[in-house]
Structures are given as structure tokens and as C-alpha cells.
Amino acid sequence: MRYSGFKVIKEALTGHKGWKPAWRDPEPKAHYDVVVIGGGGHGLATAHYLAKVYGQRKVAVIEKGWIGGGNVGRNTTIIRSNYLLDGNEPFYEFSLKLWEGLEQDLNYNAMVSQRGIINLIHSDAQRDAFTRRGNAMILNGADAELLDAEQVRREYPYLNFNDARFPIKGGLAQRRGGTVRHDAVAWGYARSADSHGVDIIQNCEVTGFRVENGKCLGVETSKGFIGAGKVGCAVAGNSGRLMGMADMRLPIESHVLQAFVSEGLKPLLPGVITFGAGHFYVSQSDKGGLVFGGDLDGYNSYAQRGNLPVVEDVCEGGMALMPMIGRARLLRMWGGIMDMSMDGSPIIDQTHIDGLYFNGGWCYGGFKATPASGYCFAHLLAKDAPHPTATAYRFDRFRTGRMIDEKGMGNQPNLH
Amino acid sequence: MRITCPHCGERDRREFYYRGAAVDLDRPAPDAGEKAWDSFVYLHDNPAGETRDLWYHEGGCGAWLVVTRNTVTHAVLKTELASQARS
User: In chain B, what residues touch A360 (CB-CB under 8 Å)?
Assistant: First the structure.
């Protein structure tokens, strides 16, 4: 069933009796060509592109809970492609281009809003670094614009430009960045994948892999054994737990990242503001809530909740940047578990086990990557070769010294 | 989260700097080979449950501690001086 304005009017006139579930609820079959583990944004996107672009007809997504119940529903919904390094920027720009065509591709309103993102500049050194980054973005086909303080002031006059420690001296803007309604991304991909024949199997937890003679034959689940020609794992946040079932240790640690939303306010913030120096970023949702966050709690964790020191740190950052935020009341706060990799960049690669593929290590940047992650993982699963924009996301880059370390922090995941 | 320093007693987590998994106590020999070093530097256990990690009491006595804690509940189970945990 295609969604359209005409369909909405027709249903409105006939008592809304014609709407059908957006996806089926099938029982697992005995065997699939490809089984994708993880019914989050990346897993569902993988299934969508496997079926629609790469023509795979027997695909299943298995999810231990309900689809979209993990990090795709717990992030702060920002999309952007403002990276520096060659291994990253083409991939994230590919992702941003996919976002731009996503709703037509899925026939689903994901409320993609290119409202722009500005990274604030506070010093000459930071301006140099952001100028370099902006040039790298432009060289890779993205858009970037260096703003001086007056240009930032015209758009955000209420920011604290004269903070003693971090006065605002300008910003690096990416106008094509913005926000997307995150739940709709999961639902849109699920609906489209389902319409192309993908079985989405919820409440089906993986309990092990069946590996014989170095080849993965399928997965053991709470609904029994499911055979598979290929198995793709896309469970960022729980990658360590899942791959541990295949006796793999990963260059990834799990960390908790908190996010916050205020009560609904009248339109205030036209775009996304990041205050990296103060560990704070903020945007405003279409419902009016200020959506904001900051740094990781900083220690390995699998608890989907954080501790108070970071709450205090984020609120201090908000007050320093935008003193009026102190008058808004906090509505909700929550935590999600991040796959923090050893260099801050993701992994989309084959494993040493034949037929077992891995997608993870998204750190706190997984949401914006959703379309390209799905596309590139589908490419890898279908063709056994990396997509041209994802060739650097290999497991062996750590051992061979080819890390993609945007922040230059080395092997300390909590600092990326 | 509060951590009990063997020297200073129970303190706020904010007094401590987090280093990561307590693998630093088992540093391989310089000639141990690529695999051992890859494992030491990049491939750490990442358990959901009990873990051992290194914390530095930078806002207190300056001691390096090995903290045993639960990554699912954030409960701190045991704290010892790194110098003693190693021996």
C-alpha cells in the first residue's frame, strides 16, 4: 500500500478503515540466504538495501525485542557529514545524500529536516582546524561554510558570545545537515524491507552461532535454529555480547551516553548548535522540546542509564552557551549504550568465520550513518567486497596501523 | 557512583580519572609479537557484568586503583591498589 496525500484524504472520508499494518509478523523459515541480526536502524536499512538494491529475495531481520527499540530510538536525531579524514568523509557524505532522497525511496515521511548545523569556534587555532575540516568536506563533495561571529549572532542572537573562557568567534556551518524523526527511520525501513519480501522477526533472541569447519551455517535463537547462507550482525551497543558467542573479541568497548529533552517551547532554535569545547550540543524538536546532550559518562557500561556528574556537566555546558536554557524545565533524560571503537570510527567487514559479517563500532555517530551503513553492509553481504565508500572500515586497521582517528585520541574509547 | 579508595575512603566518582580495562597490569614483553600486542592494545574483554578496570585518584591521593565493578548495575564491588593487584 503506497502512502500519499490522496490516500490520506480517501481514508479520512471512509472512516480510516483501509489502513493495514505497515509490516507483517511472520514466523521464521528454516533457511534464508541472508539473516541480519538486529532490528535497529542499521539492520533494517541493511535489509531494505539488500532487497531493493541488491535483489536478495530471501532475507530475514531478527530482533530480540521490538524493532526500533534500541539506539535508533534513543539518539538525538542529528544528521551531518562534517568529517575530516579520507576514510570517513566520503562515507558520511554518501549517507547524507541518501538521507536527502530517503523519503521518496521509502515512501515514508521521516521528517528529514535540513535545518543546518553549526560547530562553534572559540579560538584562532580552532578556526584553523575547522577551516581545514571545511575544505576537506568540500573536496569530498559536501557543503561547508565558515562563519564569523556576526554571522552566528544573526542566526542565534541569544548565545553567550562573551563567555570568559569560550567566547564565540565564529562557526563551521553545514547547511545540509539537520535532524530526522528517528523512530520513523526504523519504521520506514522496516515497512519498505517488508514490502520487498524481507521477514522481520521480532522477539527472537540470538543465543548462539552454528559454526562448522570455519563456516557459519546459521543462528540459534529463542525461536529455534535459523539456517543462513550469510549472517550479518548489526547490533551496535551489544556487539561485544553477540560476537562473544562466536568467540570473537572486538576493538570495541561499550559506554553509556546520556541525552536530555526539555518541556515543549515555542520555536527558538532554527538549527543544530554544537559547543564542542563545552561538551554540549542542542537542537529543537518539531514538538518544541530542546534536545541536548554532551559527553559519554566515561567508563565501560551496559546500563542504559547514566550518572549525575555528566548531567551536571551537560547542564553547565548549556548554561555557559545559552543562559536562557536555565529557565526551561527538563522533561526526560535517558542513556543508550554505544559501541565505542578504539579509534572512534566504525567497522563494516567480514570476520574470520566464513559467512559471518560484522557492522558496528558506531560510537555516538550511528544515527547519521544509518542509510550508508545499511547500504554498504548490504553491498558487502551481497558481493563479498566492500562498498567503495567503506573500504577503510576494516577489522585489521588496528593491527596494521591504519586507524581512522578523527580526534587523535589513540586507543582510549572513552575519549573519542 | 562512589569508589572506595584504600587510602582515602569512599569518594565521589568525579575525583577519579578512568583509564580503561585493567590490562595494563599484564603488559606483554617488547618482543612478544604482533598478535600479543594487538590483543593488549586493542582487543579487550568487554563484559556485560563484572569487570576490572584502572582508575587514577587524581582528585585525591594520586594512587592507581584496580576497581572491580558491574557494568550492568554500576555497583562497585572491590577496590585495591594497582601496585598490590599486580603482585
Answer: none
